[in-house]
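Shipment paperwork, digital attachment
Item: protein structure file
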Amino acid sequence: MYVNLIYLPLLITAVVVHQVQDAYKYWDVQEHSTSVAQFLMDWIREEVEKEISDIKATILNLKKTTLTVYDPEHGEIQAEIHLPIPVKSLDVIPEVNVDFSRLQKYVPEMPTIQLPTVDVTKWLPPYDG
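Attachment content:
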């Protein structure tokens, strides 16, 4: 069978388009993409609710702060402050153990970059002008 080379790209395109349409119908792309989008929305909603509940707990903990002595004329103000971390003494910096494993997945991997050498003799081949 003789096929003119001018029509070959059109023929290939038509075949590819037909295969893509068949694959779209066979794989139920719309249904699967909808279910994936719904899953992602549910997951994001759960993560946001977790973060908001943590923030809410911290704020409610800080709202428990009460003034026990308020005498600015004599230079005395005392308060009971509820902190999000345990503090035994104000003289010692508290040790905070934070789990950064959840945040690690959001940090992009940095590619390794090799800078060019500063030796100009390696930039160009030797010239015997």
